[in-house]
Amino acid sequence: MQSSSRSEGAMTAKLDNDSFVAFDHAAAGHEGVQCTVSGSFIAKPCTPQEVAFYESSALHPAFQEFLPTFIGTLTSADEQQSLALAAAQQAGAIVLPDSEYSSMSDAPTAPPPSQTTAAAAAATTKTETTGSTSAAPAESPWVPSGGKKLETGLSIVLENVAAGFKRPNVLDVKLGVRLWADDAPPLKRAKLDAVSKETTSSTLGFRIAGMKVWTGVSGETDAGGRTDPYATKYEGSEGAKGQVIEKDGYKRYDKWYGRSLTESNIKDGFRTFLAGAKAGAVDRSQLVARRLAEELKHVQEVLESEESRMYSSSVLIVYEGDPDAMEQALEEEQRPRPERAEEEDEDEDEEVEFAIPSDGSFQVVDIPLGQGSVSHQAININLGPEVAELGELDLDEDEEDPPKVHDLRLIDFAHASWTPDQGPDENVLKGIRSLTQILDELALE
């Protein structure tokens, strides 16, 4: 079972199509993204490689601390054949034919070893951007997705990082000077190299990919629980390139806004983002900047101790945009917390222990991906139905998420892998260090 200390106990016994609904506002942007009725979890189309990376993060607990909590996967029964079935099996998904979406515990079961090689080969016949099958990705023309639905038949279920905020201000910062992975076709490499060269990606190792800032003007329909933070890069996409859209109480800045910024004025972009913390009786912008800088320093320490490569990954930053909710969250932080021993005593009667059998249902396996010898390690635990029922999660719960001042996570791992003996990911670290420096300076303004 995988979980994050930021959001403990996230476990589900059943996730199906009826558990998810479409986002009810245009800013959700990327097609195919859904959320639970409560808004606590999000299901977004993904690649098997992204699922494998989330699974393998269980072996890297310090790194996992900065990921959204991974709940599991959903597979479409309508596409349970050919490539979709192979991709789902490669990701370890359990396909149930009786419902449109399969049930999935938060710890997928590995497919039989005999299937992994064939599944991996089949999975490589579909690229992230084209949404169509082909004999060899390198020979197929590459076309940007433009926010269209990723057709893999597989969706990853993650916690909604925006849950817990009344009016979340959200920023997506794309990391890296180099933005393409080793398996990217030449056309994609050329396009992404041009984007990097023309933006702050080449000089600072990051660029602003999109953001939304609460203003309270032009409506108040965009509540925190119904915000998709993973689609922030598609904010404002209904307007002209670079146009700031004011809608549902938010100002929305698209990726073209971020691309227009240079090394000399990049701070203005972050000042715009932090302006939402100036709206209350007390200016909290410096406090938010300082907290984010401290979080990024922890991220830097973790990445410097890991050996990975994450191309086109992002830092997702969220802070409370409602002034009253911000002050409430700050007050909540000051309230005394029960001692851990006391908490354990209170929960003692509710705890259920079970032994992990020695018959191979708990194992560390290598999941091969793509053509060649690339593989990812993942922990696979086969939970029986009687155990899964103990961890059943009510997706329509009325309990509200505790208020939060801010949150910061690493996201977007479609092109991420662990790379033993290759050293830390300096490509991503350059962006983390630059971003930290800017926020440190803004915390002193």
From TrEMBL:
<keyword id="KW-0808">Transferase</keyword>
<comment type="similarity">
    <text>Belongs to the inositol phosphokinase (IPK) family.</text>
</comment>
<feature type="region of interest" description="Disordered">
    <location>
        <begin position="100"/>
        <end position="146"/>
    </location>
</feature>
<feature type="compositionally biased region" description="Acidic residues">
    <location>
        <begin position="341"/>
        <end position="352"/>
    </location>
</feature>
<dbReference type="InterPro" id="IPR005522">
    <property type="entry name" value="IPK"/>
</dbReference>
<dbReference type="GO" id="GO:0005737">
    <property type="term" value="C:cytoplasm"/>
</dbReference>
<dbReference type="GO" id="GO:0005634">
    <property type="term" value="C:nucleus"/>
</dbReference>
<dbReference type="GO" id="GO:0008440">
    <property type="term" value="F:inositol-1,4,5-trisphosphate 3-kinase activity"/>
</dbReference>
<feature type="region of interest" description="Disordered">
    <location>
        <begin position="328"/>
        <end position="352"/>
    </location>
</feature>
<dbReference type="Pfam" id="PF03770">
    <property type="entry name" value="IPK"/>
</dbReference>
<dbReference type="GO" id="GO:0046854">
    <property type="term" value="P:phosphatidylinositol phosphate biosynthetic process"/>
</dbReference>
<protein>
    <recommendedName>
        <fullName>Kinase</fullName>
        <ecNumber>2.7.-.-</ecNumber>
    </recommendedName>
</protein>
<dbReference type="InterPro" id="IPR038286">
    <property type="entry name" value="IPK_sf"/>
</dbReference>
<feature type="compositionally biased region" description="Low complexity">
    <location>
        <begin position="115"/>
        <end position="136"/>
    </location>
</feature>
<dbReference type="GO" id="GO:0000824">
    <property type="term" value="F:inositol-1,4,5,6-tetrakisphosphate 3-kinase activity"/>
</dbReference>
<dbReference type="GO" id="GO:0032958">
    <property type="term" value="P:inositol phosphate biosynthetic process"/>
</dbReference>
<keyword id="KW-0418">Kinase</keyword>
